Each structure stands twice: as structure tokens, then as C-alpha cells.
Predict the structure of Protein kinase domain-containing protein.
Amino acid sequence: MFPIRGGAIGTGPDQFYVERDADKRVFGFLSQGRHCYLFAPKQSGKSSLAFHLQQRFREQGTCCIYLDLSTAFNIEDEQDEKQKASDICRQFLEELESEFSEVEECREGETDVLWPEEAVADPANLLIRLITKQLAPPGARRYVLFLDESDTIDALPPKPREGLVSTLVELMATPGERYPVTLCLLGSLPPASLRDWNDRLPKLLECKQINDFTREQIQVFLPAIEPVFTKCAPDDVLDACFEQTEGHPYLTQLLLHQAITIGDKDRKRLSRDLKKFVDANLISKPHFTLDSTEQRIQLPEFRDGLFLYKDLLEADIPGNEQDPQQIALYLSGLAAFRGFGEDQQLCPRNPIFSDYFDEDWLENIHKKTSAPPPVPNAHQAEPAIIALVDHTFCQGLDGKPAPYERKDNGRVLLEGNFYEFRLANPRTKRPFTLQLFREIRKTGGELWRNVARALVRVSGYRHASLPVIEDGGYRTSGNGADEKQEEFAYIIIQEGHVTLAESSDVIAAFREDKRHRALVQFSRLADALLKLHENRLIHRNLHPGAIDVVEIPEPKEGKADWNLKLTHFEMSDLVENRIRELDSRRKSLDAELGDEQLSFEKIQQLCAARSKEDLACLSPERLALLFRSRGVETLESLYSDVFSLGMVVYSWFIDDLPQEQLRKVFPGDNKKEYDRSAHKELVRSMSAAIKDVPAGEMPKKLKTLLTEMLDFDSPRNRPTIFQVVSEIARSLDDWSTEAEADRFIVAQGKRAFGQERAFGRPLPLLAAGEQTGAGTSRHSSQCCPYRRCLSGPGGRYRHRLHGALQ
């Protein structure tokens, strides 16, 4: 009756739809042929509004087409920009044609539309011709095209995005009498950001925000409540829920569902039990609705709103829908616009959000961003490099304040080529990581290109356990006293870090609470790897030293908590290429490399493996390649990451790696020697320790999973990361107890309830009742786990970086 899926309300005969003011306004705009952009926070019911509008238009005989752009595009990294642009336009056309073919009144008797296999010189122009001449030619019929998850466009590379957006702009700019098509975009990006796609776009769109339910609007639920309650008036039930949610679409449905589950009670007891449910299931433990809001407010598009939130906690602010800070705070989900006209106010979203995102939370956020933990001074950068960083990034120009301040003396990742520094914003104290590349016409440039391409791609996924780029490009700067000009490249990544290898307290906390901490973090890292593997990216370098620990605000019970992020995977392709080159041409490297010698020590630095524990976590295939083992398989695959992940989480569930056996694996002090048989024995003893765990302490499914992940001799006998994510979720069923009713499930896609789509990819581990956000990729089971995808919003930081990579 209450299909809790994002902000949507079902459209079936036994379900309800909450009509809001935006429905009438947008229906009027689209009926007049005025193109629209509907924007709202996640879980606000954008998609259900689109479905409802389609229903109304079809009743009038208007042809409606709906596309979910989050699943529309696949990008081949190996292609050049011209081919990528052609492919994006082709894929858009194919998705469009597929939807048209399912709507008989749109293309009755039409033939298939074909796109040339080779790259097209002007894909945007061809796409326009095929749409307007063949797919949906002008005539008496009107078309309304809904493009949901339009944030996905922002994550496309510049050339493909330019081609697709120019097509949309051309369709919008064509007068209705010549081509009667009306577009409706739905997303969660600020309207001002659309200008970055195309300068003409904002002028062609009516931008309309979607607000939360009002108390009057949720009267539609009364028929579902009246048969259940006799001790409490149905209106009182709505009041009890609305007092907590203030119309948040998803939370309103969740609490109404819980009220019916609680059953017939008087108003006082019902309010008490609903409050207990909120405290136990939303405030006191991780929940997607709150977690996703916390993550979004820290994204570049919404971060400015964080400073306004401090004032909002003290008092409501007069609403201004044109104020970028207010719009950013609203789209993050932390605030809502209430009232109309001159009486409109910007308010905290609801009491649930105010209890969670309170002054203590805000203080912890600022503490986290202003006091980055120290980084070991191993491989400290030389003075000339430090001076270069200070001159370029830490000095203001023309009286303007410096953009960053340096927080450490840097670390050498590859001597002469690759350095890493801790930076912070002087005003907000928010930490960043600077990666600096020198000698960009030699190895440094090749390294930068590989790192940049991978990070641009990964940043678009917007995954909590993957890094996000803030800025990047290349510059020319003076080099100290002699003022010699030097070219260098750089990438700035959001957030500072301390690695898991340096965080014994974090591992101890995981080991103390295996079910709620260790298993949830295991699930998140596995899901991040699944994102990579779906797009044919192999980490190849996964160990505790390549996992960042980011402290998050403390939960209500006062225990510290963290989020783990994969790092250094972006170097894997170059490391692989260099090691293989070194192995095959040890004595004569390319002439262009000059006297540069890629020694094992340099490669080890690049792998960031600073301890024997780190090296032991690498797959046997990688170590065989790194140490040039003869007669052993060295071909790495997606299964190599699965082995490494199993090695990493072993210490969370069982114990530290056995030190005595570890010393036998790498007998020398300088880690230049590797004993494969000792490594195999180490892994065998770890597998035995897993099997020896008593049945009551860990689910059998989880023990089996960890053992299979550590298969030493046969990589293909290891599970895929897709299977790992699935098994983690299943093992939680065995771990639940009668005292813990919060059984975990693998959430389904938000439209799995309302549309005929089969999604086979399991999503991140969530508690019962939690939902995935828009921006989570969804795929059919036939293509999982390796289909490439591009999903989630991207940022403007990629523009310069993409241009520099050309």
C-alpha cells in the first residue's frame, strides 16, 4: 500500500499518488510546449511525478517517452574523444528508439533507425536528423520526452556531453509548429550548473523545484488508515507522522507504513512508538536517507550551503529561490522551502533531520575538515618541490587570498616524477590531497595521464568509497632562485587521509563489532570494487596502505565512526605496463626515457606498499610479476582484487596476519625477496583460522566466502566481486538474532516496484526499509558484473582536466 521507493507513491489501484503544486504548474508548462527542468533533492518523488504526468498526457492522446539516463550510456576508455562523442549520441538514439518501439501510437509502421558503425564527424547533427526525420517526424502528433536522472549528463566527458546537449538544445530551440517535441529534464543539480553544459540551455528551460508534501496533500492517505484505527482518529495518525517528517516524501511513507504496522493505539502511544522507531532505526544507526544527505552536502555542488546551515539551525531564513546557497542547501536535502510568496521561509527539513544534523554534527564536520591527521614523513619531498607547491598553490594573486595552505612536507611516490601533499582551504579548513607530476614529457606525463583518466572516470560514480577530484590540469612555474620555467601537472582530490595501515584503532573497532561495523564496511568496499569491475577497471594494488580512513561525525551513542575509501588504484595500469616493460627490456629502456632507471624500489614506492603486510595482501599473480617468479601465472584479472580484499578484511573478522609466517614470505629486510611457497602457507593457515571460528561467532556463509576469496592457486575459483556483494548480504540473514529486528536486505532499484525492469546487480548493504538513491547504476543480470556504465552526477572540476588531456 505504501511502496517505499525514493519519494514515489505507486500508481496501482490499491496505491496512492500525492499531487503537489508542481504537478499542475509543470503540466501547464509542458501542455504549452514550454520545456522544463524539475529539480529536487534525492527521494523527493521526481520519477513518480514524471510517471503521473505521462499518464495525464496519454489520456489526452499525447505521445510520451521516458528515459532513465543513469542506465543509458557505456563509455570505452580506449576510444578517442571523437568516437566517444559518436557512441554517446548513438546510445541515446538506441535508448530513444527502444522506448518509441514500445509505444505503438508513436511509431506505428515505422522502420528501424540505423546509426553508422564508424565514428561520425558530426554526431550531434546526425542525431538531430535521425530524431526529427525518422524517429519522430513532425506531424499532427505531439511528443513529450522525459529525461530522468539528467545529472548523468554532467558526468559525461566534455566532447560527448557537448554533442548530446547541443542536440537537446537544438530540439528545444526549434519552434513547436515545425517540430512539436517538448522536453522535461528531471535531476538534483542546481539549475545554474546547466549553464556549464551549454550557455543557451537555461534560457530554454522553465526551472521548477519540487517541494515536500503539505499536511493537506497527505489527506490522500486517509482511505488506507481509516480501516486500521479506531482508538485514534485517522487525521491524528497523519498528524503524528507529519510532526516527525514535515512532508519528506520518503520518510512520510515510511512512518505511515510503520504506524499501520504498530496497529490501533491512541494518539499518545502511537506518537511514542513512532518516536522510538525513528530513534532506533534512523538516528541511532546508519541509514541511507541520512547518510546520502551527509555525503551530498560535502560535494562541490552543494558544499557552500553548509555555511548557511549554521544560521538555519538558529532560526529560519527568508526564502530566496534565486540564492545559490539556499538552492544548494535545499538540493542537499538538509533544508526545505516552506510557505509562499513573501512568506516563504528556508527551514530545516524536519525534526528527524534536525535531531541528526544538529550543532554537534556541524561541529564534528568542521573538526574533521580543519584538523587533518598527521601523515608519516617517509619519503619526504625535497625543498625545491615544496617551494614549487608553496609558490603555485599557497600564494594569493592580485590581493586575493591564497586558495590553499600546505599542511605537510609532502611524500615522494616516484622520485623525480610523482609527489603527494596535504593541503587545506584557509577559510573553511577543509582538507585536500595534491598529487604533483614533474617531467611531464617523460614518465611523469604518462603517469599523470593514466591517473587523471582513471580519476575522472571514478569521480563520476559519486561512490562514498571512491575518491572525487576537486581540480586538475597543468601549469608552468618558475623554479626557485634561477627562475627556470618548468612544466608540471597536478590533480587535487577532496579530503585528506590517513591510511588503514596506520589505523590500528579502526581495525580494533571493526573486530569488536563485526556485524555492524566490519561487515558494513566490507560491503561498501566490495560495492566500490564492483563499480570498478563493471567498468573493466582493476585495482591491482589493494592493501591497507591503499585505503584511506575518513572520520565521520560521531553517532549518538558517542562511538567514533569512519568511512573507508579506495585510493591508489588509478596507478595500476601504469604500474602493470612499467613492470612488464622492465621485465622484458631490463637492460634497454626506451630511448625517450634517457637515463631514467625504473628500479624495484621506485615501483614499490609507486605501489605505495610500505610494509610486508601491504605486500602480502597483493594477489599471488601480482607478486609473481613483481618479483619475476618463473613458471608461475602472472596474468592478473578481476579476481586478483577479490583476493586482496579478502586479505584486507581478514584482520577485521579473525586476527592480525601471522607475523612469524609473514617474515618467511619476505625474508629480507629490504622486501626484495619473495618466497611464494611461504606465502601459500600463510594463506592456508589463514583459511584454517577462518574455518576454526565457532559457528555462533560468525555466519557460515561469511566464513565460506572469505575462504573462497583467498584461493591461492586458482584465481578463477575465487568468487566475482558481484558474488561477494551478494554473499555479504545473504550472510547477514544468518547473523540476525531475535533481539535484533533490524534485518538487513539488499535494496532493490527504486523503480523495480513500478516498472517492468529486471535489475540483477545487488546494491550496497542497507537496513530494512532503506532505499538506494538516484545515481546508483542498475543493470540487467545478463550484463553483470562487468558491464561498463557511467552514472551519478559529476562536477565542473573535470572541464579543465579533460581539456588538458586532449
About this structure: The two ends are 53 Å apart (CA to CA). The chain has four domains: 21-209, 289-357, 383-496+795-805, 499-735. The CA atoms of residues 18 and 218 lie 7 Å apart.
